[in-house]
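Structure, all two chains, one model.
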Amino acid sequence: MTNATRKSLLHTSRLKPWEPVLWLLAFASPLLLSSHALIINEIAIVALFAISLDLILGYTGIVSLGHAAFFGMGAYAAALFAKHVMPDPLVGLAFAIGVSTLLGAVCSLTIMRGSDLTRLMVTLGMGLILMELANRLDWLTGGADGLQGVVMGPLLGTFEFDLSGRTAAYYSLCIGLVFFVLARRLVHSPFGATLMAIRDNRLRAMAIGIPVHSRLALVYTVSAGVAGAAGALLAQTTGFASLDVFDFHRSADVMLVLVVGGVGWLYGGIVGAVVFKLMQDTLSSITPQYWTFWIGLFLVVLVLVGRERLLRPWTWFRKRGGA
Amino acid sequence: MTQTVLQASGLVMRFGGITATNNVTLNLQKGARHALIGPNGAGKTTLINLLTGVLQPTEGRITLLGEDITQLAPHQRVQRGMVRTFQINQLFDSLTPLQTLALTVSQHQGLGLRWWQALGRSAAVSERCAQLLEQFHLTEVMDQPTRVLAYGKRRLLEIAIALACEPRVLLLDEPVAGVPAGEREELLQTVAALPADVSVLLIEHDMDLVFSFATRMTVLVNGTVLTEGDPDQIANDPEVKAVYLGHGEEEGASHD
């Protein structure tokens, strides 16, 4: 009996056979599709950003429309660090994660109270404030022109960031994998379970002795750090940081990515990022002016029909409830 | 000499001009089976909220095992052994009963911040979960999402979660409310079989359950304690009869 409960509990956290396959494919992709290394890099960054949002949105139930605040903070921190302190990417990444984690800890105080709508507005406001700050402090950030002249040193002292983007893609994939493994541990742990308890029923979570506020603050801070890592990767691999990293559309896009891929499931961020980025890329090359129309249409259909049904075309013409 | 586990003395709760709880004193002995009864609006819910820390009393003080807990937050009181169930189920709908109990037990065993280890990795946790599932007849549904469980099972889980917190004092808020007759027996048995060293405060409208379960009763009317005694005394008390037979209006008013 005890064995059965233990087995059942551990079952969800066990590595599924398709998981290593997926990661092998991801790591093979810059070699197989070497002309597309740049987009692979972008997908890896968006996926990491989406995973950071999923920690708070999918697993804890905190709705945020300002997650770009931390992404942008990571991007600027990494770019400034490379420009003024030292060009080593890994040290810069660590610095950027530290800064955005700190920002997350401060901002976590604002999400404790109120309803979802309040939080939506507060997080949105945070993103706007930081964007305006980056705009205003032009002596530091370059203002609306963006931060120019960021030159990155070679990765681990050996691998130069080249124009083809292969080093960049591998760098982002590796960092992405590290954070994915950590996030995967976290969501299947007792700590992760208390987050889901808070998401499902805050009143009861409190009534079983979970310190709800400190858990919220903790996961928000962690999520901010991961988002900062994604931002840092973008700044480092493109050698540039502009106000666009704080932009509202970035917060909205990452939420769309999660909607496409599914929330409360870490692979949802990855699947969403792949689908979203590839669609964006393909559609904008077919119809550079109107591609957002098609993305919009896809989202409407996805949400109305449901992901499950969309993936199973043979159920489309069957009556609901039947079979 | 019996040990007083929970002591509430002179509790007063005012909301603006309204006094919802007026000088309530309540003592719970170790292993007590104590019932709290009273008509609707008597202030039972307010009293529970005061005891569990959802509300801060205007006056008065609450001690648990000799420690003053009046200023503590709800989750801190739970950690010290004051646990409640809810009249309306408050469950984690997307989790299974097993996951629910495992996370509760983990939190209680101080593993709530452990993020690098899988839930259930600790043998002590899965052992305790197996016991609780067995005790509350939830073993066969342990892997189903809570939202699809039958009402009676959800009710059982409601109490199982509370017991997973290893309470010293358990506040049961109408445990059989709304449970269909067929599933009632199972629930009553588990309530009767609660560990003897846990002090239970039962809030219930069902008088059959109250009189079969409680060895001590407190009657609350209009926010004040009308009387306290053993079941025989309460059953024969003319004032209590008056309140329950509907002549309670003037009776209650005089206590205001």
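Chain B has one domain: 4-255.
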